[in-house]
Specification:
Part of a complex composed of FtsB, FtsL and FtsQ. This is Cell division protein FtsB. Keywords: Cell cycle, Cell division, Cell inner membrane, Cell membrane, Coiled coil, Membrane, Transmembrane, Transmembrane helix. Belongs to the FtsB family. This protein has about 100 residues and is an all-alpha fold. The chain has a domain at about 25-80. The chain is about 75% helix and about 0% strand. The chain has 4 helices and no strands. The chain has helices spanning about 1-20, 25-60, 65-75, 90-95. Helix 2 (about 25-60) packs across helix 3. It is rod-shaped. The termini are far apart. The mean pLDDT is about 85.
Length: about 100
């Protein structure tokens, strides 16, 4: 009976060791939990970015002001009847 009890105790200790320190044990589970949390944060950040981009696309599709602003800043366009003045500073004046 003692040998059976000793064998079962040894088996229990071995299984506990696997649970705590083995592959797929609690350390791995903690690491995976941290990884999942980091990925959730990344997904939330990307969702917010997508929402901002979607709002910008909708604004460009429907709003003429945003379209005009982009045309002016990125393409250098001006309205009909406007005069464009570009002021260039001389190096002497820059000091």
């Amino acid at each position: 009976m003692r040998w059976v009890l000793a064998g079962l105790t040894a088996l229990l200790l071995w299984l506990q060791g696997l649970l705590w320190f083995g592959e797929g044990g609690l350390n791995d589970v903690r690491g995976l939990s941290r990884s999942v949390e980091a990925q959730r944060e990344e997904v939330d950040r990307l969702r917010q970015r997508n929402q901002a981009l979607e709002a910008e696309v909708n604004d460009l599709k429907t709003g003429l002001e945003a379209l005009e602003e982009r045309a002016r800043s990125e393409l250098g366009m001006i309205r009909e009847g406007e005069t464009f003045y570009q002021i260039i500073e001389r190096e002497d004046d820059a000091r």
